[in-house]
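Hi R.,

Here's the chain you asked about this morning:
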Amino acid sequence: MLLLGVMGIGWVLTTSTSSESTRPEIIEALSPEPDSQAPRQTSIDVDVPVDYRVEIWIDYRGSGDLSANWVRVPEGEITVIEATGQYSWRPTPGSPFLQEWQPGQQRVRIVWDTRTGIPDPGVYEFSFRIG
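And here is the predicted structure, written out as tokens:
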């Protein structure tokens, strides 16, 4: 009985971790950190192995809309350094997509797959706060 209690406590401790601890190994670095607070000029920075490609999606909610509205960031707005597997994007003035972060909770979805060879697709979602 004591063993079951200890196992139960261990299960609760391992499943009650932050989203940062569950970040997939394929994402070598990520900024901003999940569940962190960031300034309005922050960018989404993702590092993956060089033979992978990344899509960045933003949960773009209209005012008062509580349902998710995932929108893919246009490829032309993402800075990519293929030689190092770095992807970076930030809202910019004049962008037809998103000009600036609004204060509050922001949700991001990272989608990846290999460029060539055996497919290895995956998805990781996280949130951070502006303001």
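One quick note: The beta strands are 29-31, 37-38, 44-47, 52-59, 70-72, 79-81, 86-89, 104-114, 122-130.

Cheers,
M.
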